[in-house]
Amino acid sequence: MSRNVIAIVDDLFFASKIRGTAEALDVTVNFPRHADGVKEVIQRNSPALIVCDLHSEKFDAMALAKTLKADAATRDIPLIGFCSHVHTALQAAAQDAGFDRVLPRSLFTRELAAILGGEM
């Protein structure tokens, strides 16, 4: 059975990189288009991981993290955020909001296979 991951990503470069890496690992990735879609995908697919671009313009990453971590049904799903390494305030805010890990984009990209494969 394939591992299920949700990727909340607007950037086409990162979406393509995630999709390609996931295919190579036999990981199913869902890319919800709106905040309500995240809950729908969670209910349908029981994801092992949620990955979020903290620079997303379509999603309020902090509100999403707080909502997911406040809900007993979703609080244990690992939540990983990534952003530009120069946005240290954004990184701190994400950790405060409930993200389990916050990575700079370069590290996220370098470790993407391990992240999607469940090794991290």
Question: Care to describe what's here?
Answer:
There is one protein chain. The protein is of the alpha/beta class and 120 residues long. It has one domain (3-117): Rossmann fold, CATH 3.40.50. Helices cover 48% and strands 20% of the residues. The chain contains six helices and five strands. The protein has helices spanning 12-25, 35-45, 61-70, 88-97, 105-110, 112-117; strands spanning 3-8, 27-30, 49-53, 79-83, 101-104. A five-stranded parallel β-sheet has the order 2-1-3-4-5, with helices on both faces. The longest helix has 14 residues, at 12-25. The chain is globular. The chain starts with a strand and ends with a helix. The relative contact order is 0.20. The model has no long low-confidence stretch (mean pLDDT 92).
For the record, what is the CATH homologous superfamily label?
A: Response regulator
- How many domains? The number is 1
The level of helicity is 40-55%
Annotation field: number of helices: 6
Beta-strand residue fraction: 15-25%
Average per-residue pLDDT, rounded, comes to 92
CATH architecture: 3-Layer(aba) Sandwich
Largest sheet: 5 strands, parallel
Do you know the CATH topology? Rossmann fold
Shape verdict: globular
Rounded radius of gyration (Å): 13 Å
Low-pLDDT regions: none
Structural class, from helix and strand content?
alpha/beta
Question: What is the terminal separation in angstroms?
Answer: 19 Å
CATH class: Alpha Beta
> Quick one: how many beta strands?
5
* Run of helices and strands: EHEHEHEHEHH
- Write out the strand line-up for the largest beta sheet, numbering strands in chain order: 2-1-3-4-5
